Amino acid sequence: MAVCVLLAAPASALELRSVANAASGYRNANAHLEALYRAALLNTSRQAEFAPDGTAYVKTGDIPAEWLRDASAQVRPYLYFAKNDPDVRTLLRAIIARQGKYLQVDPYANAFTLEYRVWEQKFELDSLAYPIILAYDYWKTTGDASAFTTDESLGLDRVLVTMQREQDHPHNSRYAHREMLDGKGRPVAFTGMIWSGFRPSDDACYYNFLVPANMMAVVALGDLQDIERDVYRNLIKAHEAKSLRDEVQRGIQTFGLVYTPNYGYIYAYEVDGLGNAILADDANIPSLLSAPYLGYVRADDKFYQATRRFLLSADNPTFYTGSVARGIGSQHTADHWVWPLALVMEGMTATSNTERQNVLNQLLASDPGDHLLHESFDPNDPAKFTRADFGWPNALFSEYMMTSIGGAPPIAMGNTDDLEFRSQ
């Protein structure tokens, strides 16, 4: 793990007038917060660039590649400007177009280069869900369905086929990776959920039914159903998306809930369908903590609330406490280091202003002096951190400031009101 103490030079920024005006026009009595929000909001415009083929590429930060997950999350705050700014709409359509091409190149890859080469082929279920949700939210936010081209349809076809195949990984899939146990991962039973090789942290799963990724898949498959039915007018594919969605949902509720003496039934992070489970969380999203943000449950859902109490306690082995901050970390970085992604998500799923403000204070305290959020930091000494340039937490913080702090209505990732097995 490389610990950063030097600051990265900023890249040149795209000219997005509405975003720039929102940043420069933001005022707050807390000058530190004002600077942090302005830098965060502008960060994505410094990571994105238009490519010669008319698409747009979004690098993750200080790694010269685009992650499907990161890029989708990095541009999400710009959805708030898309309806009234044609330049933002052009950028988002170009990003969606590139992701559609990536999915055709290799639906098992999680990251690509500007030249469409595979950077990493770590099969992460969320890497298939994020592009669907981004395209769906662009459509619902702007009313513009022009992003759903024939090329995009081919990419979405690869997503659906891959999800269907990986629902029964042992019998249907040839995917393997050297970082998984014996290259193939541990044994699993059929659960109805979709198998994933890696977590959104890019670390190999221990048990390969990653529950929060399947929660996100449920939301994304509902979005795909709407896209196929209402845009492409393909009722067969819409039905396939719905059928898979229903099976995944039943699998989560049947195998993903585990009884604990202190908290009652809570969601496990990973299961194998054979009775084994990991009770923990990871800062990267989708996480269990993020379930309401994903749109999978309401924030007051009783199973989610029990899970949240566990996750934000010393009983969670990935929850760390320091003198400056306390929150969830990741096996991707050092033990006892906190991730701003998890802190922001704690604030976004909080139900009280007190907790939201407490999170904001910790985020301000985590700033090492460059007014940016980083991958992880030592909660006793925020001057020690990883990833000098990491776009995702800055984008999520922008969204947090606009919604949880600023009061803007959240943009729903999908509609799950019709899901069965609700706890309330």
Describe what this molecule looks like in 3D.
This protein is mainly alpha-helical. The protein has a single domain (35-403), classed as Alpha/alpha barrel (Glycosyltransferase). The protein has 15 helices and 14 strands. It has helices at residues 17-25, 31-47, 68-74, 79-82, 86-105, 125-142, 150-166, 169-172, 211-230, 235-255, 291-294, 302-311, 340-348, 353-365, 391-405, and strands at residues 48-50, 56-58, 66-67, 111-112, 118-120, 209-210, 257-260, 264-267, 270-271, 277-278, 319-321, 326-328, 376-378, 381-386. The protein is globular and about 55 Å long.
Short description:
This protein has helices spanning 17-25, 31-47, 68-74, 79-82, 86-105, 125-142, 150-166, 169-172, 211-230, 235-255, 291-294, 302-311, 340-348, 353-365, 391-405; strands at 48-50, 56-58, 66-67, 111-112, 118-120, 209-210, 257-260, 264-267, 270-271, 277-278, 319-321, 326-328, 376-378, 381-386. With 424 residues, it is mostly helical.
CATH architecture level-2 label: Alpha/alpha barrel
Number of E strands: 14
Multimeric state of these chains? Answer: single chain
Q: Which structural class should the secondary elements be placed in?
A: mainly alpha
Determine Rg (CA atoms, Å). 20 Å
Q: Helical content, roughly?
A: 40-55%
List the helices and strands and how they pair.
Layout: H1 17-25, H2 31-47, E1 48-50, E2 56-58, E3 66-67, H3 68-74, H4 79-82, H5 86-105, E4 111-112, E5 118-120, H6 125-142, H7 150-166, H8 169-172, E6 209-210, H9 211-230, H10 235-255, E7 257-260, E8 264-267, E9 270-271, E10 277-278, H11 291-294, H12 302-311, E11 319-321, E12 326-328, H13 340-348, H14 353-365, E13 376-378, E14 381-386, H15 391-405
Antiparallel strand pairs: 1-2, 3-4, 4-5, 6-9, 7-8, 9-10, 11-12, 13-14
Helix pairs in contact: 1-2, 2-15, 3-6, 3-15, 5-6, 5-7, 6-9, 9-10, 13-14, 13-15
